[in-house]
Amino acid sequence: MSLRLGDTVPDFTQESSQGTISFHQWAGNSWVVLFSHPADYTPVCTTELGAVAKLKPEFDKRNVKTIALSVDDLDSHLGWIKDIEETQQATMNYPILADADRKVSGLYDMIHPNANDTLTVRSVFIIDPNRKLRLVLTYPASTGRNFDEILRVIDSLQLTDDYKVATPANWQDGGDCVIVPSLKDPEELKRRFPKGYDEVKPYLRMTPQPNK
Ligand code: BEZ
Asked: Consecutive sets of 10 residues in the chain, 212 residues long: mean pLDDT of each?
């Protein structure tokens, strides 16, 4: 069965371009972005892996580790990494799992046989430090992902874990937030949102981002 939001993600031990990884232990107290790509030595994947490497300072700021996966073997990864570094002007600063035996792609349902019966699709899993699954995205092989969107979701998850807000459509860090509808007590509203809020409708109350 496929993984659902809130599930504890499966643990595994698998080879990677940075040595053997025991996933839960490797994750430690960090958030994790685990993402699969269809194959090594392909153009879109080359740009994606370079883009994630260049975003490392942004992931680090948010206490996030990144880890990629395809069903290619370790030798293939090690050769391809040289191409990624050369063509994308990036240093590959995170591991690529070598899932040739499909152990991890099976556990995480990354092969969608009606799209392609051997290659992984472009899956993204955001996992919190409690090993809970917080987001799943699935993109087709032909569409490279927007990793700024992944950072935006992480910003939203980390904010909404700490404050009684949710983030509206197209929200960016620093933008106004919505107060969760369950919060109704006037005293608590005053205490939690000292900058005030705008009641557009009783269920739609906008407030400045509380941690800014
Ligand atoms: C690519 O990464 O360029 C790619 C991989 C599989 C199918 C199509 C494109």
From this structure: 93 98 98 98 98 98 98 98 98 98 97 93 97 97 97 98 98 98 96 97 97 94
- pTM for this prediction: 0.97
Q: Beta-carbon neighbour count of residue 134 at 10 Å?
A: 20
According to DSSP, residue 113 is labeled: T
The answer to whether position 8 is within a domain reads no
Q: Which of 45, 104, 154, 165 is catalytic?
A: 45
Task: Tell which one of 40, 41, 45, 80 to mutate to probe ligand 1, the residue whose CB is within 8 A of the most ligand atoms.
Answer: 45
Q: How many folded domains does the chain comprise?
A: 2
Residues touching ligand 1 (Cβ under 6 Å) are: 38-39, 42-45, 141-142
Residues in the chain, how many? Answer: 212
Q: Residue 131: what pLDDT?
A: 98
The whole-number pLDDT of residue 2 equals: 85
Instruction: Look up the domain containing 181 and give its range.
Output: 163-207
In the structure encoding, which two tokens stand for residue 203, read together?
């269920």
Do the Cβ atoms of 104 and 119 come closer than 8 Å?
Answer: no
- In this prediction, residue 1 carries a pLDDT of 63
Does residue 153 fall inside a structural domain? no
- Are residues 186 and 133 part of one domain? no
Kindly report the backbone phi and psi dihedral angles of residue 46, in degrees, each rounded to the nearest multiple of 5, phi listed first: -60, -45
